[in-house]
Amino acid sequence: MTNQQNVVVRDVLSCGVRNVLPPSSLPVAKSFSPQDLKMILMKKLETEKGVAKINAWLDSMRASSPTRIRSTTTASLPETENRSSWIVHHPSALSMFEQIVAASRGKQIVMFLDYDGTLSPIVEDPDRAFMPREMRAAVRDVARYFPTAIVTGRCRDKVYSFVKLAGLYYAGSHGMDIKGPSKSYKYKKGNQGVHFQAASEFLPMIDEVYRALVEKTKSIPGTKVENNKFCVSVHFRCVDEKSWVALAEQVRLVLNEYPKLKLTEGRKVLEIRPTVKWDKGRALEFLLEALGYANSDDVLPVYIGDDRSDEDAFKILRERKQGFGILVSKSPKETNASYSLQEPSEVKEFLRRLVDWKKLSHGAAKCA
């Protein structure tokens, strides 16, 4: 191709075919066939779609970043009003504790708990997101009185290594890998053990994507790629914001090769998972059914979580008009949760109060 023709190619890619006004000396009709122009336009559209996708991801990445702490002297009045208005619609589960337990009269409470940011603090290294000893004790005590499930984006084996409590249900990889206690466990109405995997056929593909992402992102400092069995998590908590574009581009390049996978965003994490219709909300429904409460009015599900992926469970509870979602967040967020708690320490306090209430009500029932 001549240099003159190269000029036309650049113009087509940058301006679009209809806006190109080539010099009169250039024989446009002879330079490009309709097929050539079609290919150029398709390439341009592909590039635009890629840029739009990355920009959308970047917006989500910024939105998932922890809110910067601002001093009370610099906090504006509208922000204070916004927080107050949000609290009216999503009051503290601690201040509304009596109303919550009153709604459980004659019903079995079933607890669903996210892990990161709910039972453990958000930390820079996801491999060191250990649960504090006091929180483990609170979860252990809750599980003695109520069926309790950990529902997380983490690999089920990984979260079990953090929690280390038998007698709980563990739903890893956003509920795509579920395993419950033995069939003799006291809360289960049926006789069958619980073991469910929603997307086993995707396991080889997930392994491939994990290896590809490790290779593609190794030049971006601070990136942590985690294989969560049924999904791959790309943590960018320690990545400089200036490198987010490069990181998003590498993730996009890998994901383009796997149309059966999709990308979702969490708190400082990009997650690649199968395009199956399964999420934390469906995992909640599956576990209620496994416990024998599929169509029961005698159950009160309570789901506590801090992440965008927990909204799927909050939404299910809203639609069922049964149970409560509790969002763990220090700042106002759009949510389907009914109540709020600010941080894991408040989650621990809520669980302890729930156990104390159950002990008292159990003791009162015995005396009667």
UniProtKB/TrEMBL annotation:
Its EC number is 3.1.3.12. Its cofactor is a divalent metal cation. It catalyses: alpha,alpha-trehalose 6-phosphate + H2O = alpha,alpha-trehalose + phosphate. It holds the Pfam family Trehalose_PPase. InterPro entries: HAD-like_sf, HAD-SF_hydro_IIB, HAD_sf, OTSB-like, Trehalose_PPase. Gene3D superfamilies: HAD superfamily/HAD-like (3.40.50.1000), Trehalose-6-phosphate phosphatase related protein, domain 2 (3.30.70.1020). The keyword Hydrolase applies. It comes from the Eukaryota. Pathway: Glycan biosynthesis; trehalose biosynthesis. It is an enzyme of class 3 (hydrolase). Keywords: Hydrolase. PANTHER family: TREHALOSE 6-PHOSPHATE PHOSPHATASE, TREHALOSE-PHOSPHATE PHOSPHATASE C-RELATED. Belongs to the trehalose phosphatase family. Removes the phosphate from trehalose 6-phosphate to produce free trehalose. Trehalose accumulation in plant may improve abiotic stress tolerance. This is Trehalose 6-phosphate phosphatase.
